[in-house]
Amino acid sequence: MSITINREVVSWSIAEQKIVATLDTPNKIETKSALLIISGGNEIRSGSHDSQSQIAQHICALGHYVLRYDRRGIGDSEGENKGFDNSQEDIAAAVQFMRDRLGHDIQISAFGNCDAASALLLYHQNLGLKNLILANPWTIDSQKEDSSTENANTAKDSPIENNTIADNPTAPSAAAIRARYWARIKNPRSLIDLFTGKIDIGKLLSGLRKASQQDNISALSQHMAKELSDIRIETNILIANKDTTAMAFMGSYKNKIFDRTRSNINIKLHHIDSASHSFADQEARKWLYSKIHDAL
Q1: What number of other Cβ atoms are within 10 A of residue 165's Cβ?
Q2: What is the pLDDT of residues 19-43, one digit of tens each?
């Protein structure tokens, strides 16, 4: 990539609490467009193993502004961490900072993975965003954070580092288990493993019982279905087919409460055959970068 970037630490305040962020500015601006990256779970703005820092560098080098920030109570920011479902003010303040700093004619696309995707969907209204990029949206009411204490308290913004990402240890839904069993059934090797005793029969029966259950549609899924059905800006949903969080989302997405969502022309689903929640492998990462750039 021929365009170099300028990376700086910036800040603003919410109710006298300092919010710390990183703004990447291309030396050569190709378009008046910007990407806002929202962190999921308790992740700091650099992302697990610097993943979001790498996204920012790649997109900025293509000629776009990129902003990442630590939500209140996370990383370098002050205040109390109240979770993704109480992050409306944080998102709105980040968008306002971008407009104040970059100009009110800036076209902002917003990206989030896991519960950050859910937060963007729930709180994007009235922000004037160009579009949303929602990766593996979280649909489970009883949230389990996916980031370590080290991630939450140690910010890093090196340009390129190890991109091996610890994926989200979400308990699989019945929909996820059904998808996995179907994939295994289609693999002849599984039959050989069954007859040679390599597959634990007890675990198999337990898994089949779980797979036969119907997932309850969470209150969060119902809320997301309503927001998606009514959305009027381009919304790209990125799905790693073998990721348990994505499988849970797709299990809900097939439910009748998403009927209006599936007919909304503003929504586009994109799938990649990956098990990586954070698109960590080389093929998935390249695919993710291209989908984000296409939206911009």
Answers
A1: 19
A2: 999 999 998 876 789 999 999 989 9
> 25: closest CA among 10, 9, 11, 5?
5
Q: Which residues make Cβ contacts (< 8 Å) with residue 91, sequence separation at least 6?
A: 38, 110, 119, 120, 123, 124, 127
Q: Of 181, 178, 296, 147, which Cα lies nearest the Cα of 236? A: 296
**Which one-letter amino acid corresponds to residue 160?**
I
Dist. CA 235–CA 152, nearest whole Å: 28
Q: If you search the block for the tokens 């997405």, which residue do you land on?
A: 253
pTM of the model: 0.78
What span, in angstroms and rounded, lies between the C-alpha atoms of 219 and 209?
Answer: 24
- Alpha-carbon distance 14 to 263, whole Å? 38
Sign of the CA dihedral running 181, 184, 188, 194: negative
Question: Binning pLDDT at 50, 70 and 90, where does residue 49 land?
Answer: confident
Dump pLDDT digits (tens) for 119-171.
999 999 999 999 999 999 999 885 444 433 333 333 444 332 233 333 444 45
Task: Find residue 112's DSSP bridge partners.
Answer: 38, 134
Token pair in block for residue 171: 């308990």
197 class by beta-carbon count within 10 Å (0-12 exposed, 13-18 middle, 19+ buried): exposed
Using an 8 Å Cβ cutoff, are 271 and 239 in contact? yes
